[in-house]
Amino acid sequence: MTSGEGGEQARSTADAVARRSYGKLVAFLAARTRDVASVEDALAEAFASALVDWPRNGCPANPEGWLLTAARRKLIDFARRRRTGDSASGQLQLIAEELEAAAAASTANEWRIPDQRLALMFACAHPAIEAGVRAPLILQVLLGLDAVMIASAFLTSPAAMSQRLVRAKDKIHQAGIPFRIPEREELPGRLGTVLDAIYAAFSEGWTDSGGTDIARRDLAEEALFLGQLVTQLLPDEPEALGLLALMLYVEARRPARRDAQGGYVPLAAQDVSLWNSELIETAEMLLLRASPMNAIGRYQLEAALQSAHVARRRKGDANWSSIVQLYDALLALSGSPVVAINRALAVAEVDGARAALDILQSLAEDKRLTEYQPYWAARAELLARNDARDEAHQAYEVAIGLERDPAVRRFLQQRQSALALASSQVLTVTTDREFQAVKAPCSDG
Amino acid sequence: MQYMLLLYVDQNSWAKMPPEEQQKGYGAYMSFLEALKKAGAYQASGRLQPTTTATTVRVSNNKTQVLNGPYTETKEQLGGYFLIEAADLDAAISWAARCPASSHGTVEVRPVWVNPAP
Description:
The complex is a heterodimer.
Chain A: H1 3-30, H2 36-57, H3 63-82, H4 86-105, H5 117-124, H6 134-143, H7 147-153, H8 158-175, H9 187-207, H10 214-233, H11 238-252, H12 277-290, H13 298-310, H14 312-315, H15 320-334, H16 337-351, H17 353-363, H18 373-385, H19 389-402, H20 406-421, H21 433-438
Chain B: E1 2-9, H1 11-16, H2 19-38, E2 42-47, E3 55-60, E4 63-68, E5 77-85, H3 89-98, H4 101-104, E6 105-111
Antiparallel strand pairs in B: 1-5, 1-6, 2-5, 3-4
């Protein structure tokens, strides 16, 4: 084997472990010291060492265990370097305890790292953590997303986001926020922020469904896994069921989202025979299970919306008036401008494009929306249907400029050039409704 | 970990209470103190005289400035503290919730530095 191949293999093994185990390693290493930032640094260095060591010496039989050991050594280095005296020895004591626990948990050749991810999620979603940073924190700490990616999902600047993340980690460490699943009675109240974060992770993974970006796709899988984990832990929590149902509906349509050339296919133009009916049926069952619990919430409503969309599978058309009603309820609950955009697009199907444009106009005051692609895409689509071609052209221009997914960009460019060519009839295929419904949940609402 | 529970209460409403009410209130604090001690969480505590007795001191340009009154005038005033030992923030929060001051005022929970910052 050439060193090039070895390097390639080492990299792909490291990537695979990173995806599968990153959050598990953070949760396990930080459980005692609660020093998440140091653990992240140590893991980053451990991964860097792996990329040097593995091509040379071959991939270890147990890469996860190798990384855990390497990261632990780095943590001991950090503690020694930082300071001598009581604090350092206290830190070393905690690391030693963690080592013993790891040794107890592992058999001769196999490390079994206990899965403490859920406990870590609840620490990140603790009421003592600033509300707006809880979901981003979970994404960073459990999935290793960088601040830039998180900031774009949460409509905020990368600099501000990374500062807030640092502060939140400091608080977990310094205020002693425990890594623990809350007691039953306080669990439902603490659950909402955890669900928001899972959904945000799923949305990040969903943004590129073409399969070109493996890390993103795994993010959606990871979110589905976390969603399932939560419903196992809390089988009677309707919103947890609603979230899992929502993600499954969306996941079911993954194969239909791109054509053979990798081009973007909007929901209305998707081939329903490509939808995964097994996942859709599981989702319908979850929704049915949640509904008698009589606690409707955002995720059950969004799942119900998806259910109304996939009705097209049997009836040939989505149920637009019930979609508008569901958006009404969702908007009353969240007040989110993103929901309002989607509602406007549904209104267009029932009352026409003019009514929908008026709604969008009323949303334009929200400054965050000026940098939000779906707002401009929706505007462009509605203007085009209203024969306001010049304005539509401009709005498409902004939407294209704001989009980061090349396939969606190409799709928007096609729509834009179609404006010049044809009459507005060509544009009856609605814009990317599904994409918007799923993107960027506003968890601050 | 050590946590400081800082008790912010309206000292005037306490002064306006009839003596038997005050007695009951005082009793509640004594019970809380006892519970802390029994649980091994107690480190120290103190009840502060009203802010009318406060004096503020600041030194700048080698000049000592002494002012009558508290650092800030607030609706609820710092009226006392409990220094406790607790496993984590959740444990400290549940002590804070048991503290009578959290029912008639506000309790701020602050972790104490293990080592002073370098």
